[in-house]
Amino acid sequence: MSHAAVAHEDRSSVGSSVRGRQLTQERLLPYLLIAPTVLLLGGVFVYPALENAWLSLWSWKLTAPDQRSFVGLGNYVELFTKNTLFRQAFGFTLLYTFVTLAASLLLGLVAALLLHPVRASRRILLGLLLLPYMMSPVAAGLGWGLIWGREFGLANALLRFLKVSPVSWLAQPTTAAVALMTTEVWRSVPFVILVILAGLAAIPSELFEAARLDGASGWQEFRGITLPLLMPSLSLVVVFETIFKLRVFDLIIALTGGGPGTSTHSLGVVLYRLYFRYFEGGASAAVGIVLLVMGGTFAITYLRLARSGEGG
Amino acid sequence: MTRRRGLVAVLLSLLLVGVSLVPAGAQGKKVTLLIHPTVYQITGGETGVIAAFSKRTGIEVEVVTLPIIQLHEKAMVEWIAKSGRYDVVTILDLYFNPTMSQNLEPLDPFLTGLPASYEFKDIIPSLFDTMRIQGKSYGMPFQGGAVMLFYRKDLLEKYQVAVPKSLDELLAAGRKLTAGLRKDGGTDTYALGVRGKEANVGTQDFLVFFFAAGGNLFEKDGAQCGLNSPAGVITERFYATAVKDGLVPKDLLAFGRDELIGAFQQGRLAMAASFAPYYGQFNDPKNSKAAGSVGWTVIPTAPGVTPGRSFKNFWYMVMDRQSRNKDAAWALMQELDGKAQQIEMASKWSFGPVRESAFRSAEVRKTFPHAEDWGRAVAASVGIAHAEWPKMQDIIFEEHAGVLAGQQTPERAVARMCERIQPLLGSR
What does each C-alpha distance from B364 to A151, B285, B351 come to in angstroms? Predict the structure, then answer.
């Protein structure tokens, strides 16, 4: 082999190793860039979730940590087969989530459609509408507690004005649930309005003009244009609101305390009760995992449905 | 550079001089006290005996207040974490148990060092029993009392109702008062205040009349649940009748501690079974319409049961084993149980004293004309402490709430209570 050929080979091998290094660096760079986020998420979400899942497989009492024992799925079996309060709370949480979600969506959609054409004072209106959403659930619960009070509450004052007998709103299971769900709907509708208004603003006006030229009615416009194009916004609202509502805790504690009796206990309240009152770490971790699985299942189902809708 | 060094030296020496001017006993001494807001209020709050203690000793007291359930949860979590966050915690006897004691400082070495002038034996001796485990004392009795029957003297006089002495008389008085009130248009005024909103107060109200009916929560040395007994049935029948006859607020399941105090102060209750120290709030001229016409008597009982036998509830002061200021913490505990302080708190702020001399004190009797009744009720009443109390409390409340809501019979409720409580009795 001539010197020139060797030199060429050396140069080319040097060149390829430099390119190799560059390629490796280019390949590594994205991973390096996302590493802080991955580490952060791993530290604050993945690790605690895994630790919680592991804990849920143990019989572990906070007051006697040295006496813990591995029970596998025993905590889950006990919750679903023996713990009547958990089963009742499971049903109530589902009911609460679906009723408040449906009502919030319906009211939010109607309000957003009515607000969308309004131009004058829109910012002020939106600002006012957002007030309930800015309020902490505890403050909302305490405030609405005054509204639902039997003797001096605003709700009964209205009933008395209408010559209707006052109702013990927070003292009967059904009316307490109604009071709680109404308060939650009042609190969450502004968020729904805000997201749907953003979705409405993104729909090109030409589509409506074309539909009108073709003689479409208002209802046809809504069904054929508005609703399908609002689906991404609606999916977002549904996913977020479902997760928020499934883990309800603070509003219940502030408004009904989970009562009367245990009728408005949610899974969040049961979790709190197991951990902070009975100090049962394993069982409360199992409730947490049940909530996580429920939230995750709903979110994935909604998103899949929304995607299949877009595809179809 | 030299000037800067000089300046630093001057500042440091000023700082050292400043530190040395603080009284030696108070240097760096700070005690954290976790206490219930109402209990803090009846020590005189920010201008009461705790403030006086700080002023006199130089020991700073950081006061943290929390409602009953949250207070015990928070204390337990901090103890388990061995944080030493609260040097002194006030706890209810109900919540005390052997597991809790593992985190607390035994007080016997401190108690034996008390000077004779402290008159330690004046503190009701039986109150120490609740907080003693395997011969060690873990708590100083602090404040409390038994439940008394409060009534509106003016309403009882108006409707010619005698002060009830038995459970049957109490129901009869309630019916007569209700009939009179309804006839006069008092649709939102009720004969008897009953609480069913939260587990702790709902259970308390159940136990008041359960003990008055002669019941014992545990039988056979703590091995058997005593709720499924004639006394249990009498109690739940009493409540079922009171609800059926409209003697109690219609929204009693949304009626908690604050609602009961508020309703009495607003003049919407003719009678209420409540802890003795609440006399001050019911009779407060600034906040209560009922002020000046509040009477009280010992809780009416079933035939053959000692009058006033009811539910006794005391707050105790305990010291965290991890406390870094044990001497200062003990100084505070000693102060709050001091004879002069107990009398001052009882006579000025409706505090429930734990010293026998306080019940005999002329100053206290001036505020509580019936202090003697109170002492009698304390002696006759029953206290509770169990490791599984939070669970038992929830069970009793859930079944009792079923009776209040008219959803289950008295017999079924007490049977269910025992069915659910019995498995917990092994953990005593």
Answer: 36, 18, 10
CB B296, CB B370: distance < 8 Å: yes
Mutation target among A277, A278, A279, A280 for the B interface, most CBs of B within 10 A:
A277
- Smallest Cβ distance to B253: which of A62, A171, A273? A171
Task: Name every chain B residue with its beta carbon within 8 A of the beta carbon of A277.
Answer: 69, 73, 390-391, 394
For the question of whether the overall pTM of this predicted structure is more than 0.95, the answer is no
Which residue from A151, A172, A173 is facing B188, i.e. has the nearest CB? A151
Separation in Å, CA of A235 to nearest CA in chain B:
37
Using CA coordinates, name the residue in chain A closest to B80: A63
pLDDT digits (tens, 9 = 90+) for B160-211: 999 999 999 999 999 999 999 999 988 889 999 999 998 989 999 999 999 9
Nearest CA in chain A to B401: A261
CB pairs under 8 A between A and B: 74
SS3 state of residue B388: coil
Q: How far apart are CA A202 and CA A209, in angstroms?
A: 15
| A64 contacts A280 by C-beta, under 8 angstroms | no
Single-letter amino acid code for the residue at A121: S
pLDDT at res. B11: 45
A171 and B250: CB-CB below 8 Å?
yes
Report which secondary-structure segment, H or E, holds B371. Answer: helix B371-380
- In chain B, residues with a C-beta closer than 8 Å to the C-beta of A264 are none
Write out the two tokens for A96.
Answer: 């609460």
Q: Do A168 and B254 touch (CB under 8 A)?
A: yes
pLDDT per residue over A135-144, tens digit each? 999 999 999 9
What does the pLDDT look like over A65-115, one tens digit per residue? 778 899 999 999 999 999 999 999 999 999 999 999 999 999 999 999 999
CB–CB of B268 and A151 under 8 A?
yes
pLDDT reported for residue B19 = 38
Alpha-carbon distance of A124 to A130, in angstroms, equals 10
